[in-house]
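Internal QA ticket QA-208
Title: Verify multi-chain structure generation after dependency bump
Assignee: T.L.

Test input:
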Amino acid sequence: MRGLIEKDLRLTLVRKQTLIIFLVMAIVMGLSNNGAFLIAYLTMLALVVGTGSISYDEYDNGFPFLMTLPFDRKTYVREKYVFSLIAAVAAWCFGALVFAVMDMVRNNGAGLSEIPMMTAVIPSMYLATAIIVPLQLKFGAEKSRIALFVIFGIVAVLAIGSSSFLADSVNPFVSVINILHDLPGAVTILILIAVCALVTAISYLCSVRIMENKEF
Amino acid sequence: MVKVDNLVKNYGSFRLDVSMEIPDGTVTGIVGKNGAGKSTTIKSILGLVKPDGGHVTINGKEASKLTAKDKEEIGVALSDSGFSTFLTVKDITAIMKKMYPSFNEEVFRRNCSSQRLPFDKAIKEFSTGMRAKLRVLIAMSHNARILIMDEPTAGLDVEARNDILDLLREYLVEDEKRSILITSHISSDLEGLCDDIYLIHDGKVILHEDTDAILGNYGVLKVNEATYEKLDKSYILSTKKDHFGYACFTNEKQFYAENNPNIVIENSDIDDLILMMTGGN
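Actual output:
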């Protein structure tokens, strides 16, 4: 696992110039917008980088050799989830730090109390990783994008369609949002973490199955 | 030791059905035409494809159930796959250090330097020969008991090929228990390295022989039609008709030399073996 993380870290740093541009853009956007956006943007960016490491493994027929290295396929899958999580947490911390510094300068630290609630960004966005990883392992980098568009398309159609045809009082999406809205912040975060953990566990099991059946 | 026991793999109408053994301390070569099944055999041994039947064991363990610890004993070099070409030798050194407890950084660095492989240049900027050398050096860097190499010298000039073969020979000299399984299109590479050769054709092993026996006992008889009719064909493995008569491939050239002193007998090499055993009538 350590070797795989080292590999993904070094492959990520290959794009350090692009990453620096993104970080500078994030800081500039954070200065002109609110800090919550900055944290969410950086976390999302880190998750894109995390799942993008599968494309690097796939590129140039890299998988056959990679799979001869000393780890099993389950470990490979686990590392993808762990690496994405590490990247997301690191990016969130960086975003929170920039947010805190800006808030101290601008508002004398008045907005610092918002930071704990912003941890909700990590499980919310990690859900996307849980969807992307098995798709990418199954269909490869190119085809998984199409699959992802189809899935998000279906979700969008369901959400928009339900709001057009159903009254808010019977719309399940609205009911869930209302329930979450009424709960205390900490409980909402705990529910988000629980949902994220459940989806990730299912996603992990699917990914392991995909990898174990894969031939290189 | 690697044991391939009635391995079966089907790809549409192609069927691979092979058995072979690579004992400790030996260098075994697999030869055959393109599409004969060499790479599929290697991939099955490495657990990269799932056999439809039979068993592949490495040091007594089923290939599909090899643990990380078991895999540390195997060094692999594939012709068409390796570490990401965005990485540098320096990156690979750091990765290998964390992948293999027995990774010998000092030797790896020394070998890379002696082969003039730059440490800070991305592999994508390397020449074909440099990439091939790096793949072999990586496979040899962690004290593996067995090296499994699929066409490690493919596409290289004679100097680069010799460099790689020298590296492999040095690796064998360091520990007599080490073994190598290697495939190659270039028969002269295998002649100077392998103890025994498997010839695969249309998914089947059609010949397994010691390299010394191939070079010492096998030969090609060049005979005209009249001589061919009278020839004792007990030791003729295959015959090919050509412009001058017949080319007969034998595994007992001494027998024909003694009994037919007037016929032309050419010494054979692995290329003749492939041509005559897979293309003859």
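Spot checks passed. The mean pLDDT of chain A is 86.
Status: verified.
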